[in-house]
Each structure stands twice: as C-alpha cells, then as structure tokens.
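Explain my protein.
***
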Amino acid sequence: MHRLDRPLDRDTLLLGIATSRGLLLELLAGADPAATDAAYRLFVRRWIHSRTAGDGRGERGS
C-alpha cells in the first residue's frame, strides 16, 4: 500500500479530477477500454511517484 501522507494542494486535486473526467469522457466517446485503463494506471503511477519522490521511499513506499 502506498502512503501519500503529505497534504494535497488544490491544484494537485484538480489535476487528478480533470484526468479522471477526461478519461471517462474518452470511454463515453468510444475509446478502447484497455487503452483508457492503461492511461489511467500510468497517471496513477506517475502521481504516486511524484508524491513519494524525495522522501527515500520512491514508488515502493509504504
């Protein structure tokens, strides 16, 4: 389990919401569900990495 124990700022929250909404719109417009899922998973991995970078835990932090 990843711990994202640093507070989220408003801009970070809006980025996550906008990304999720955009990918949902892609699905509604007929995008390939597997490709959309892969894009979401990539976003989450990068977000976790950015939230844990610099604290010595990296993406495998707990």
Observations:
- Residues 10-60 form one domain.
- Confidence is low (pLDDT under 50) at residues 57-62.
